[in-house]
Amino acid sequence: MAVLRAVITGLFILAIPVSLIATNIRVAVSEQRVYDYSVKTYDAASRSGIPESELIQANGEIHHYLTAEDPPPLAINVTNSRGVSGSLFTAKETAHMADVRDLVQMAFTVQVISAAVVLTLATLLLVLGPPRLLAIAGLGGALLTGGVLALAGIAIASGFDSLWTEFHVLAFNNDFWALDPSRDHLIQMYPEAFWQEITALIVVATLLEASLMVGAASAYLILGGRQRRMPVLWPGLALAGRARHSRHNSPLRPRSTTFAEAAGSGAEASSGYRRS
Q1: Up-side HSE of residue 69: CA atoms within 13 Å toward CB?
Q2: pLDDT tens column, 229-267
Q3: How would you classify the pairing of strands 77-79 and 85-87?
């Protein structure tokens, strides 16, 4: 049983950072305002020559394409500032978006599985051990998450460009992601600076969640330790207090005479009567 608890605890600790990071990635991808933020903040309209309203509408289609379970092929038509209508993305960009969708759906699957694993292992820890064991495991998972995020923060600070390129090399088996900022609308709408900002936001959000877990688990362990010590200290103090209270507050009552004392008094009286 001890070995089983140790294995479950270790798996729970490992699943915590995966679940937190995957959940925050899913939240970011699922929120269309994130897409609109990039278009508005990084002036995609002037860079692409397409009105902002057209790009915002395109964001809705992109969002649906990435997050829906079975969307139709991505085909977005826009009208540029000169009044010319046409496809927003080239064939290369469209092919890259298909790869991005596959990656997003895989991340969604990882998020669901990791969350289910965390909940299942947490339940098993509560069944196989005291709640204190779950708190210790949660503290370990949160600290591990902080360590992973610290390494990620160092990597981002040391050079996001190389890190971003290496990510694309590992995540995709083609070079469709190598786009030209001067003519490809996809990278004009979502430049590298946007991805650096979003990555930093996900890191900060996950770090905040891990910090809350550390605080909650630590508080439970500290308060739980105090409660376990209280039964040893307080019963004696409580009994002593009740004893002092009974001594000081109980009314004085006449002392009752025992049978032996009564007999002795009677004998003494009889002997006195004979002497007189």
Answers
A1: 0
A2: 555 444 444 444 555 555 555 554 445 444 444 444 444
A3: antiparallel
